[in-house]
């Protein structure tokens, strides 16, 4: 791609990819339709402009992607419902978000506009969600909002599920924090304010979902940010968390009550809605199907077979409420290994790149944003199968692109110092 005078084809690709990431903040339909067009344009760019998306510097990452996808196919074929399992595999087309993003982000103008579109979407939907909390707005949805204890409503933005919304916005909050928390060479004051305002608003609306897992992921992501950035940042973040916790305890007693209930019930191995109970039953599925798992789409009947006959329908689950346990139950131990390897590889690219590039380099803040967003998503996936949630997963793929584009032109073993990026 020409960095100075992009072709009309590349301009169209940028427009639809930008619409994808902006639309992902409020609508999976808008986001995936836009990305579908972007992917078709990207394939055309690859053919006409002879773009090579799979460079040696990113080989390790794409090898693990390939291993993971191939094993899902094998698991699907070896399962009881081959047709349905193969149909469910369609979700893995979201991996293509990464090479398209890496290609576009080679241009400074493109990547700045993409993260600006993302931040703008987060700000707009966060403002709508604040109004939703106060007035119960739920435009375009038939299902009423759940009242919060004391005052207001449990927000979910324009998503159908508040846990999905909470996990998306917790992840977005830390990614935007990484983009704006430090001054670097190419960051204007206006953009920095946009990223930080977006981050703070996303944190607030995450709390107002009253989703425990999302709040835990948010807090953990902030603490990791402090550890990565240094002692002064860590002290400031801890102080801020103490103040916010006091405010939340005084103004949102319902959220505090939900956390207390979690300690009493949801950490119990006997409570049928508790995570330990769910994980034990899910691991028993994995023990009976160690090689290929049960295959995509077959978790629910296997899980239900391990429950008492008269259990309520809301306890008949479709996933293990933990990405890694879900992987070993559905795809077997090899699938678990490939998924774990994929995560370790991408985090190594992000954190290693953050330490490798100079603190004022353009690449640095993108790598930091990708690392903080990824670890926040990863924490949320300890309590929920977040990787199976397309709304949040498509955001993760964009975040991974943020952390991989600086490596695109690197040669294996090349020493890296800070550089300006055109």
Please explain how this structure is put together.
With 422 residues, this protein is mainly alpha-helical. Helix content is 66%, strand content 0%. The chain has 16 helices and no strands. Helix 1 runs antiparallel to helix 2. The two termini are 12 Å apart.
Proportion of residues in helical segments: 55-70%
Structural class, please? mainly alpha
List SSEs in N-to-C order. HHHHHHHHHHHHHHHH
Task: Compute the number of helices.
Answer: 16
Shape from CA axes? globular
β-strand percent reads under 5%
Would you tell me the overall average pLDDT? Answer: 91
* Low-pLDDT sequence parts: 1-5, 416-422
Largest sheet: none
**Gyration radius, rounded:** 21 Å
N- and C-termini, Cα separation: 12 Å
- Total strand count, please? 0
Which descriptors would you attach to this protein?
422 residues, mainly alpha, 16 helices, disordered N terminus, disordered C terminus
Question: Can you summarize this structure?
Answer:
The chain has 422 residues and is mainly alpha-helical.
Task: Map the helices and strands.
Layout: H1 8-23, H2 28-48, H3 59-78, H4 82-88, H5 97-104, H6 108-135, H7 162-180, H8 189-207, H9 212-229, H10 231-251, H11 253-266, H12 275-288, H13 299-304, H14 323-356, H15 362-380, H16 390-404
């Amino acid at each position: 791609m020409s960095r100075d005078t992009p072709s009309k084809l590349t301009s169209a690709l940028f427009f639809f990819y930008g619409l994808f990431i902006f639309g992902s903040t409020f609508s999976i339909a808008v986001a995936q339709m836009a990305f579908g067009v972007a992917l078709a344009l990207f394939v055309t760019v690859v053919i006409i402009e002879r773009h090579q998306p799979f460079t040696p510097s990113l080989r390790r990452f794409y090898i693990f992607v390939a291993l993971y996808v191939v094993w899902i196919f094998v698991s699907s074929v070896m399962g009881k419902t081959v047709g349905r399992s193969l149909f469910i595999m369609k979700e893995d087309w979201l991996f293509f978000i990464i090479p398209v993003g890496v290609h576009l982000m080679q241009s400074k103008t493109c990547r700045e506009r993409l993260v600006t579109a993302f931040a703008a979407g987060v700000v707009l939907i966060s403002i709508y969600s604040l109004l939703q909390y106060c007035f119960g707005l739920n435009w375009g949805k038939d299902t009423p909002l759940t009242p919060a204890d004391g005052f207001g409503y449990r927000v979910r933005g324009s998503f159908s599920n508040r846990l999905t919304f909470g996990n998306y916005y917790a992840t977005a909050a830390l990614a935007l924090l990484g983009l704006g928390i430090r001054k670097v060479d190419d960051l204007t004051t206006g953009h920095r304010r946009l990223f930080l305002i977006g981050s703070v608003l996303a944190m607030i609306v995450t709390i107002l979902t009253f989703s425990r897992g999302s709040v835990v992921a948010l807090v953990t992501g902030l603490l990791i940010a402090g550890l990565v950035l240094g002692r002064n940042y860590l002290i400031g973040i801890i102080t801020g968390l103490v103040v916010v916790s006091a405010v939340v305890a005084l103004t949102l007693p319902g959220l505090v009550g939900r956390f207390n209930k979690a300690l009493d019930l949801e950490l119990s191995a006997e409570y049928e809605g508790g995570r330990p109970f769910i994980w034990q039953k899910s691991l028993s599925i994995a023990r009976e199907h160690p090689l290929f798992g049960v295959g995509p789409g077959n978790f629910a009947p296997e899980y239900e077979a391990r429950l008492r006959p008269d259990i309520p329908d809301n306890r008949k689950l479709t996933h293990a409420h933990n990405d890694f346990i879900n992987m070993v139950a559905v795809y077997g131990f090899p699938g678990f290994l490939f998924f774990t390897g994929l995560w370790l590889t991408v985090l190594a690219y992000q954190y290693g790149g953050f330490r490798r590039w100079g603190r004022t380099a353009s690449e640095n803040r993108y790598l930091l944003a990708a690392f903080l967003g990824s670890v926040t998503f990863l924490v949320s996936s300890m309590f929920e199968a977040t990787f199976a949630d397309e709304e949040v997963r498509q955001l993760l793929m964009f975040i991974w692109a943020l952390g991989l584009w600086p490596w695109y032109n690197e040669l294996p073993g090349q020493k890296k110092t800070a550089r300006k990026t055109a």
